[in-house]
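pinging the channel bc i need a second pair of eyes. not urgent but kinda urgent?? the chain im working w is below, pasted from the shared doc
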Amino acid sequence: MSAELDMTQYLGLFLQEADEQLEILEQETLKLEDDPTMDRLNTIFRAAHTLKGSSRAMSFDTFASVTHEMENLLDALRAGKIKVNTKIADTLLRCQDSLRTIRASIAEGNGDKADVEALVAEVIALQGEQSDEEETVSVANELPLDVVKALNECTGEAPVYKAKFVLHPDCVMKYVRAFMAINVVHDGGELLATIPDPNALEQEQFDFEFELYFQHKESVATLKTRFEGIGEVNSFEVETYKTARPASEIQLKVEESNLEPVHAPKKVEASQTVRVDVSRLDELMNLVGELVIDRTRIAQIGSILSSKYTSDESIEALGETVGHISRITSDLQDQLMKARMLPIETVLNRFPRMVRDLAQKIGKEVKLELNGGETELDRSVIEAIGDPLIHILRNSIDHGLEAPGDREKLGKPRIGQVTINAKHQENHIVIEIIDDGRGIDVSKVKQKAVSNGHLSQEAADRMTEKEALNLIFLSGVSTAKEITEVSGRGVGMDIVRSNVQKLGGLIDVETTVGVGSKVTLRLPLTLAIIRGLLVKVCEVVYVIPLGAVVETLLVTNDQIQSVAGQEVIVIRGSTTPLVRLRETFGRNIAPDNEPTSHYVVIVGLAEQRAGLVVDSLVGEQEVVIKSLNRFCGEIRGISGATILGNGNVALILDVSGVLQEATA
């Protein structure tokens, strides 16, 4: 008696695949209304089909029933029996929401039991009458003209064969079967082309049929015998390829669908990627951090020894070894940082659905444009920036963009435009959120700040427009006329700034009344290892994140002035307040001799600038951030600690906290 196959071991794989395919479903469905191409319909169909196959294999019948009816609806769309409209898109999105809920239930160990009867009935009702006999022909299943021409030329050199395979409907690992067929071809022959293209084969972006075009030294009969050894194949045909001139109809289809040519590769390689638990990457990052610390320490010890024993031959060998260890550690750190990197589109891809739902809810028409989704940054930063971006985006739509009717009266298009740009700048990522809405009325911001008691009317009158604009980051300051479920309470931007500054980032706002606004975030690529400027205060070493450092100065006593009890210096016509770190950290120990000059590190957050007065500058160094929260709780002005090359601990400054403490 054979034991039943235990599928629970594949649960993790199923959940990961469900996440990936649901992401594809949502992104492509959101584009379907504006761009209902056959290629997009095929992509959505394949994702639904993959989910159906894997859920059936895992015996998740409710999950499978939803995806099955989604398949039928998409099949009707592909056959042209019904056309894409908002109602169909809404229903497909609701199906995906239901699938996500079921997926969460499965992950929690509660199975896939859910009430989906009404939803399934709605999907069936949208399908209309269909004929099972009709077949859908996808333009993706035609060979491009240049490939046909190449195949025609090859037939004169050696026999060219065409093999068509139809897999079993329950086949779960389709690419494995295709790869086995390709291996048969490579054993004594050369693969010329495939339908679909090799990348689509590898990603399993096809139904259950695929074709191979190849040259081979064996006969058709021998090839058939060898292909028969491949499992889960319903049927296959092998025949000699006959030269053909493609019809103009095929050319028209290729041009209309903007398909990329199917190039004829010599070999199709299997994917070499592996899934790694993020906790392992975190642990590896901790270990590499320790290596970085020891690398610096070894370099310092080597330098000390070389100065003491200049004539010792082994010192030169030690120097070479230290240099090699330094290079290897840097390369290892570099590769691990790349392994932890994720494209920012993993965050941005959530927004089209959110924008669509929000726009429908508040009666606005919005077009969202996303640029730079391939820009990569560390996973820890990716996880932290989602909420700030959502706050800004919701503000832009609900508070920034005008209603369609109002926009028309102003001579603007009915559809409001919101654009998110992401790009790298040095060791930072810059994210811009731009809208073409009403902009921010600075005078109203001042009035709100005064009425809330944040500042006096006299102080508000003295403010520049840029200074007044930064008041929107204060709690309770909002120019919204009404409080809605989305915005208007004046807490969103306060939270945004707080979260961005915790990441060691900067936030800036630009606006023009009647034209629109732009919010710019400047964030570090990683939160694990940073470059810092080492300074000394009362013989204690502190680290200032280099991303916040604008410049360093040597300032004499006569350059320091006092304005309303606050020490300031004038730099290129601009007044900059000074913060003495001795006083900030309660180490107000008077030096033996009062110096006539002071080292000042100018730091900046958005438009805010301040000069940190320190005893001396030590130099730049790469430091590993260690959190102190677990041991000491939140310490204002300190974001963490690091271990220096000499084994001593140095505190890392939280620039935003230092500035707030100094101005409190």
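so The domain at 7-127 is CATH 1.20.120.160 (Four Helix Bundle (Hemerythrin (Met), subunit A)). and The longest strand covers residues 416-425. — does that match what u expected or am i reading it wrong
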